[in-house]
Each structure stands twice: as C-alpha cells, then as structure tokens.
Design brief:
The N and C termini lie close together (9 Å). The protein has helices spanning 22-31, 48-60, 85-88, 98-105, 124-132, 164-175, 190-201, 235-247, 263-271, 309-316, 336-342, 372-384, 395-400, 404-410, and strands at residues 2-7, 13-17, 38-42, 63-67, 70-74, 82-83, 107-111, 136-140, 143-147, 156-158, 180-184, 205-207, 213-217, 229-230, 251-255, 275-278, 282-286, 295-297, 322-326, 346-350, 353-357, 366-368, 388-392, 414-419. α1 (22-31) runs parallel beside α2, α6 runs parallel beside α7 and α8 (235-247) packs parallel to α10 (309-316). By secondary structure, it is an alpha/beta fold. The structure holds uridine-diphosphate-N-acetylglucosamine.
C-alpha cells in the first residue's frame, strides 16, 4: 500500500493546472449509456474513480478506448445491464448507471452501494423518483432490480432533499423517457449543469438548466447522439490548492479553473485575510498577513461545499482565534478531526459542529486518511507541520486527486510517494 511522506515547512510558489472535475466526469461517463454511438470525452482527470466507471462500462459490453485524459466510449455493444457489487462497492457513484441503463434497456440490476466513511448515504430518493416514472423496483440479494418493460414515462418529481446523484440519475432517465419530466428541488451544481448541457446538445429539450426546477422532454426510447464533451475544471481540486496557498503562506496561481465555481471558497479565504487576483480562467491567491478564524456551514451549491470542509478545517486550525464549522450534508464527515488533532490541532466536536481553536504550529506524526477529502486535509496540514509526516491509506486520495504529489512537488513541496514495507 502506498503512503505519502511529507517534510513540512517549504514555501510553495508557482502555478498549478487544475484537472477535469471527477464529479462532472462520472455522470457524463454514465450518460454515454444513453447513446449507441461513439462518444468522445476530453479533459478527464487521471484518477482511479474514472478508471473504475470506465471498467464498469466494459464489463457491461461497452467499448472503451481510454488514454490519460481522453476516452472514446461506444455503448452500442452493451450486452449486460448488471452493475456488479465488485465495482459498485469500490465506488458509490456507480449508482449513476441506474437511470441510463433502465431508460435505454427497460431493465437493469445495480448493486446497492451501502454506506461509506462519511455517512449512511441512502439512494431512496433515486428509487422513489424512478418509481414515479413507472419503474418497478425490487431490492433483492443486495441488488436494486429495476424494470420498465414499456419504457419510463415523464413525471413530476419533487425531491424531499436536494441530491446531486439523484438529480443526475433522473435527468439521464428522463432524457429517453416518454413525455416530459419536471424535477423540483433539483441540485444545481456546475457538474449537473454540464450533464444537462451535454444532453441538451444531443437535441433533448431541457429547460431550467442551472436552476432548481428542471424540465426534460424525453426522446421516447430513441438513443442520443452526443457531441464531444470537454470536462469542466475540478472546483474541489482548485479549492484544495487555494487552501494549500493559504495554509503555507504562499502565493499560488491556479490555471484552467472556473473562478465562478470556486466563489464560496474564495469568499471564505478572503474573510480569513487572503487576497486574490482573479482572471478569466485563472486565480492567484496571496496569503494572509495573519490568518483570521472563519465560520462556515456546508450546504448545496452555490453555498460552501461539503467537499471542501475538511481542507478548510486544516487551514482554520492554524488561524488566530476560534472557528466554527458546521457539517449539514453528511452525518459522519468529521473523521479527519482526530487525525488533525494528532498533528497538534485543537478541535472539539459537538454534534454536527466543530469548534476549531487555532494553534501556532502543527507537529509531524503518522496519520491515516479516512476518506477522499479528509485525506487532502491531512496532506495540507503535513505541508506545514514541523518534521516528517506520513499520510497512510492514500488510496482514498488516488480516487479523486490527479497527481497530487506531482503537482505539490512542482510547487515546491517536499512530498514523495512511498510503499509500505510488507
Ligand atoms: C455528490 C458528490 C459528493 C458530494 C455530494 C454533496 C459525486 C460523485 N459525489 O454525492 O462528492 O459530497 O454530492 O455535494 O458527485 N440523500 C438521501 N437519499 C438519497 C440521496 C441522497 O437521503 O436518495 C442524502 C445524502 O445522504 C446526503 C444528501 O442527501 O445527506 C446529499 O447527498 P447527494 O447530493 O445525493 O450526494 P451524492 O450524489 O452521493
């Protein structure tokens, strides 16, 4: 198993190019199932989750030609509609094949993803919405078995809770359904906007893109023909590098980024004393003279993202004063707290809120990554900790960060990937 060894204290400088967004690429890869022709995808991030979902497509019988950031996918040859546990258990987002498989083939079986490190993460809202569209759904043997022999039908869906994956699944299902589907209380993250635009570019009429009310006129079973899709920049990777600048007191420029998508992170870092130069597709962060504490609540886009909570906690842990961080989306997303405390942070948890008392310095220690974003918070802390920190279980990081150690080394960090001795 690999781990990262980081000698803290180096100042960072220079620029870093932001990769394509994992969370945009995953639904877009799933959406290729809506077509029986070749679809070209570019600017894919080079991360494990992307390879896992492409592997799932090949297991279904699709043809995938994937090299680093580019993939050509042809799902004209799909022979199976079963997404097996071995893949879904590696990556929850595999559930995104449910809507497209069901709407194109009238049946599918997808393993239930189960819980994960950050919480229970049910998929009840995906299933209720598909049922409202006429699907018959049974849960048996750990699988969701869904059928709609005569195709799905447009319906009015009101999500009880805003769900990113649920909105994506239903947008894809609706694209080939009969009639119009309206989704109220839809998620409106940039990743959903790109998915909707890809489907709209294929000729499906979608109204309300980027709002919480979507209306999708389905093709009544006709497969779609997609144009080439260039994946949008990863706003969470971008936010993580902003935090790297803030925590290490460094000036860093992010290239190939959409500044609008990282507005909430920029605003919070500004309130902590950092300053910014914002270009059309670049952002430069200048460090604060002295980091001020921050109060933040995680919420749906355009609010502050839960996927940036852990990284901001690492930064806040070195601010002058006490910060309050409330996690509203996932019930168990504080696993990084005890690891940050092992590095010398002073963080107390009460329910869904963390009280973060700023300390002057982190001290190196061995720490363990617990989930994708928690891992990057530990790396950020290690960049400034006194001594050598080993961050273990970095397979979490490899799921979603494209060449993190390479990009940080290029910025001047002392970070190397090593193999655990057997
Ligand atoms: C996506 C992102 C993830 C991000 C999250 C919230 C991807 C691949 N992952 O995850 O990085 O942290 O959005 O921004 O894009 N819920 C239910 N029932 C459901 C579905 C969701 O109760 O059927 C709950 C969840 O447990 C959670 C909340 O709704 O509390 C939001 O989850 P959701 O938006 O669905 O997250 P994901 O799509 O899984």
């Amino acid at each position: 198993m690999d781990y990262l060894q980081i000698n803290g204290g180096n100042k960072l400088r220079g620029s870093v190019t932001i990769s394509g967004a994992k969370n945009a690429a995953l639904p877009i890869i799933a959406a290729t199932i809506l077509s029986d022709k070749e679809v070209a995808l570019t600017n894919l991030p080079n991360v494990v989750d992307i390879r896992t979902l492409l592997k799932l497509l090949t297991m279904l019988g699709g043809e995938v030609d994937h090299h680093e950031t580019v993939a050509k996918v042809n799902n004209g040859s799909i022979t199976s509609t079963k997404a097996v546990y071995e893949i879904v258990s590696q990556m929850r987002a595999s559930i995104l094949v449910l809507g497209p498989l069901l709407t194109r083939f009238g049946e599918c079986e997808v393993s239930l993803p189960g819980g994960c490190a950050i919480g229970q993460r049910p998929i009840d809202l995906h299933l209720t919405a598909l049922e409202a569209m006429g699907a018959q759904i049974e849960i048996k043997g750990g699988y969701v078995r869904a059928e709609a022999p005569n195709g799905l039908k447009g319906a009015k869906i009101i999500f009880d809770k805003i769900t990113v994956g649920g909105t994506e699944n239903i947008v894809m299902a609706a694209a080939m359904a009969k009639g119009t589907t309206t989704i109220l209380n839809a998620a409106k993250e940039p990743e959903i906007v790109q998915l909707c635009e890809m489907i709209a570019d294929a000729g499906v009429k979608i109204e309300g893109i980027g709002t919480s009310e979507l209306s999708i006129e389905g093709t009544d079973g006709k497969p779609l023909e997609f144009k080439e899709v260039e994946i949008i920049p990863d706003r969470i990777e971008a936010g993580t590098y902003l935090c790297a600048g803030a925590i290490s007191n460094s000036t860093i420029t992010l290239d190939k980024v959409n500044p609008e998508h990282i507005r909430s992170s920029i605003d919070k870092l500004e309130s902590m004393g950092c300053t910014f130069d914002i270009g059309k597709d670049s952002v430069t962060i200048h460090p604060a003279d002295e980091l001020k504490p921050v109060n933040l609540i995680t919420i749906e886009y355009p609010g502050f993202p839960t996927d940036m909570q852990a990284q901001f906690m690492a930064v806040a842990a070195l601010a002058k004063g006490e910060s309050l961080i409330e996690e509203r989306l996932f019930e168990n997303r504080f696993m990084h707290v005890s690891e940050l405390n092992r590095l010398g942070a002073d963080i107390w948890l009460k329910g869904s809120t963390a009280a973060v008392k700023g300390v002057d310095l982190f001290y190196a220690a061995d720490v363990m990554a617990t989930d994708l974003r928690a891992s990057s918070a530990l790396v950020l802390a290690a960049l400034v900790a006194e001594g050598t920190t080993n961050v273990r279980r970095i397979y979490h990081l490899d799921r979603g960060y494209d060449n993190l150690e390479g990009k940080l080394s290029a910025l001047g960090a002392d970070i190397v990937r090593k193999k655990e001795e057997a």
